[in-house]
Amino acid sequence: AVRQQKIEEYTERFANPYVAAQRGFVDAVIEPQETRPKLIAALHMLLTKEETRPAKKHGNIPL
Question: What is the pLDDT of residues 46-56, one digit of tens each?
Answer without folding.
Answer: 999 888 888 88
